[in-house]
UniProtKB/TrEMBL annotation:
<dbReference type="InterPro" id="IPR029068">
    <property type="entry name" value="Glyas_Bleomycin-R_OHBP_Dase"/>
</dbReference>
<keyword id="KW-0479">Metal-binding</keyword>
<dbReference type="Pfam" id="PF00903">
    <property type="entry name" value="Glyoxalase"/>
</dbReference>
<feature type="domain" description="VOC">
    <location>
        <begin position="10"/>
        <end position="126"/>
    </location>
</feature>
<dbReference type="InterPro" id="IPR004360">
    <property type="entry name" value="Glyas_Fos-R_dOase_dom"/>
</dbReference>
<protein>
    <submittedName>
        <fullName>Catechol-2,3-dioxygenase</fullName>
    </submittedName>
</protein>
<dbReference type="GO" id="GO:0046872">
    <property type="term" value="F:metal ion binding"/>
</dbReference>
<feature type="domain" description="VOC">
    <location>
        <begin position="169"/>
        <end position="283"/>
    </location>
</feature>
<dbReference type="InterPro" id="IPR018146">
    <property type="entry name" value="Glyoxalase_1_CS"/>
</dbReference>
<dbReference type="InterPro" id="IPR037523">
    <property type="entry name" value="VOC_core"/>
</dbReference>
<dbReference type="GO" id="GO:0004462">
    <property type="term" value="F:lactoylglutathione lyase activity"/>
</dbReference>
Length: 283
């Protein structure tokens, strides 16, 4: 998990807007395996280890379903500590009749599903970084079939499923954007990420510290896709965690230099990417 601690910049919390808080809480606790860290009438903060906030779900007033083909969340991705943890959650999903997608990305093995509001979720485990194939600064990734038989052979007999393991972190976030070139400039020149994979002409993956990706960006919702209404379900914001004040300060200066606005709200710096995705800049 060294890619999700200093000196790297990585995704911390993802905030989601949902239509029904109780329905979402039931899903995120019983199906995904989170515990509730904090709770109000309209908001719940979710954790895997009892202290680190990974997902916040909020039921805004006058909330409405998200329209298709808009910018925002494609999926957020929970990274599990061990391969056996992924096998255990596969068994859990099967026992609960949950439909899932899956893929072998060469660098990782992943499961995909959606919450009751259609917010995409990936749950994955990384392969050992020494097995990743780098060529001219880009890491090889693919969308191959997942070998479930081999994966399930790692499940620890009799262990069962007890929710997300303590070492779970927010592995990455993948976003729908309006224009890929604009997004690349914002996230590289502004936020300081490096492009580590170009997936055709419609998606790219960026990271710090030679991770396979902390953020994915795509135009699969359509080039020029509009920003959804503020009252729409979907992505509220996500948090980037910087190693120190100095590194965050450099990023704030770089964002302003490329013409992006940075707001300060209660000791928190906030920016918005060119596609309307709201980002909290945290140390």
């Amino acid at each position: 998990m060294d890619f999700h601690r200093e000196p790297n910049t990585f995704v911390g919390n993802v905030k989601l807007k949902v239509a029904n808080l109780e329905r979402s809480l039931q899903f995120y606790q019983q199906i995904i395996g989170f515990n509730v860290l904090e709770r109000t009438k309209t908001t719940a903060v979710l954790t895997a280890d009892g202290k680190t906030d990974l997902v916040t779900i909020e039921q805004p007033a006058n909330v409405e379903p998200k329209q298709g083909r808009t910018t925002g969340l494609y999926h957020f991705a929970l990274l599990l500590p061990q391969r056996s943890d992924l096998a255990d959650i596969v068994n859990h999903f099967v026992q609960n009749g949950i439909q899932i997608g899956s893929s072998d990305h060469l660098v990782s093995e992943a499961l995909y599903l959606s919450d009751p509001d259609g917010n995409g979720i990936e749950i994955y485990v990384d392969r050992v970084p020494s097995e990743w194939d780098w060529n001219n600064g880009e890491v090889a990734m693919a969308v191959d079939p997942l070998d479930f038989a081999d994966l399930l052979s790692t499940s620890k007999e009799g262990k069962g499923w007890n929710g997300l393991p303590v070492g779970t972190v927010m592995g990455h976030i993948h976003l729908h954007v309006s224009q890929l070139k604009q997004a690349e400039e914002f996230y590289t020149k502004g936020l300081g990420f490096n492009v580590v994979n170009r997936f055709g002409t419609q998606a790219l993956f960026i990271s710090t510290g030679n991770y396979h990706h902390h953020i994915g960006l795509n135009t699969w919702a359509g080039v020029g896709a509009p920003t959804p209404p503020v009252t729409s379900t979907g992505l509220g914001s996500f948090t980037l965690v910087f190693p120190n004040e100095e590194s965050r300060g450099r990023v704030v200066a770089n964002l302003k230099a490329i013409g992006s606005s940075v707001m300060e709200e209660n000791d928190l710096f906030v920016t918005v990417d060119p596609s309307g995705n709201r980002i909290n800049l945290q140390v």
